[in-house]
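SUBJECT: protein chain
CONTENTS: sequence, structure tokens:
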Amino acid sequence: MKYIEWFGKNFIGLFEAGGEQFMSFMTGIIPLLIVLLTFTYSLIAIIGEKRVNKAIRASAKHLVLRYTVMPILSVLLLTNPMAYTFGKFVEEEEKPAFYDAVVSFLHPVTGLFPYANAGELFVYLGIANGVMKAGYDQGSLAIRYFLCGIVVVFVRGVITEKITKFLMKRESATKTETI
């Protein structure tokens, strides 16, 4: 009987803790996410969607911008999973690399712009909690994570683009040989 009582108390305690965590999100992170989204969409409306699209088309033509500015803008402006739609601005052989860059940037963006990939927020907050317990600043972690992410997405984008172009060229040569 004692074990049943203990199980019942602790079982309900699990849901009480979950409810407390949920309420902390409702009074903390959720309003922040809504304000950040509102700001982003307002900024696009002020600049103009056509101007934003024109700037993105121009950046797609340059290797460095294609794998730094474009993934950053796509994640910040459209959030996950809509960020992948910026791939329409790149050439066909660059699409896999652009996708790789965007996917890679969805994690580092979370510390500074949690609305961009809210599903990743729990992972980031777990890491940030450990960093804060170790005596370090969460803001410093977010900035370092963001800057490191820019370097990583650029490197991944360039390498994936080279691999894709190599494989497409090889496949094209194979098709020519069989004809």
In short: Residues 107 and 123 are 9 Å apart (CA to CA). Helices lie at 2-27, 29-47, 49-59, 63-66, 69-78, 95-105, 121-133, 138-178.
